[in-house]
Amino acid sequence: MIKNITLAAAIGFTLVSCGDKLAPVREDAVKPAVVTQPTPHDTDDPSIWINPEDASKSYIVGTDKDTDGGLYMYDLEGKIVKKSVTLKRPNNVDIAYGLMVAGKKTDIAVTTERETNRIRVFSLPELEPIDNGGIEVFEGETERDPMGISLYTQTKDSVTAIYAIVGRKSGPSGSYLWQYRLNGNDNGIVTANVVRKFGNYSGNKEIEAIAVDNELGVVYYSDEGKGIRKYNASPEGGNEELAFFGQDGFKQDHEGIAIYKATDSTGYILISNQQANTFMVYPREGVNGNPNEYKLLAEVPTSTIECDGADATSVNLGGKFPKGMFVAMSNGMTFHYYDWNTIQKVIDENKKQ
């Protein structure tokens, strides 16, 4: 990860170092509607919180990855409006709605805290910790180092449960990911218990990017340098791998995953082709009537440099984002916000070819 790229370089379509290679940001790259204020250290992963009362007052919560890092909250103009307590290398973050805590439905942001081997839980939009200092993960394992996280909300028999699916720097194939049920107690503290261990792993690099599709009940994760794996998100759904796609066309690492939901069952899965500075786009619903068969629809060049994490929403946020937003991390300690219409235009142009 390169941390000293200036904001001008980040959106100026220049060449930047990628290890011992040069990664060009293409001249035809989609330009962001907004670039956020920079954080002190190293942005990694964003998640979008939709304000239930006024979507135009929604926020983006992103990680600043360092020993004295934290979660940063941005408004839709990219201004930092709040910072969490100091965290020891927060990696990825995800958001869920309506966890019962002290008898009240509470929206939450959950991030991995790598140097303490914990996940941290914060109330939204207050961005206040409600975890009594954090929840230990991968207890008893030699390899811990939590990195990726995604939250799954399951409603069954009128009971809503929220789960955290957590990945780590390294681990055995078959149980690389651990799934925790989050529980809010009457004292306002969130705890968690392990309900499942699953997930194949190639052993090539690591698994960091994880994304859950609540409506379809599935989870995707990037096996870096190999492809995207798909499983049932429900702990009762079994541990059989449903799909392993995107194994071709990536320059090097498969990274951040964002899901754009056009309807309850259709839309797009966008995967960061990190060293190419593009996103690979697949149909959310699959192809040929098979929800587990995926065909590359488009490759979208973006202004982001070596993007780790991304998120998307189809909710009308008003202003610059009438059809929703795609947000992605970029070197230069920033996040880039894109009007979904600009992403859709590139997808549509690719489809016609």
UniProtKB/TrEMBL annotation:
Residues 20-347 form the BPP domain. It comes from the Bacteria. InterPro entries: 6-blade_b-propeller_TolB-like (IPR011042), B-propeller_Phytase (IPR003431). Pfam families: Phytase. Transmembrane segments: none annotated. GO terms for molecular function: inositol hexakisphosphate 3-phosphatase activity. PROSITE patterns: BP_PHYTASE, PROKAR_LIPOPROTEIN. This is 3-phytase.
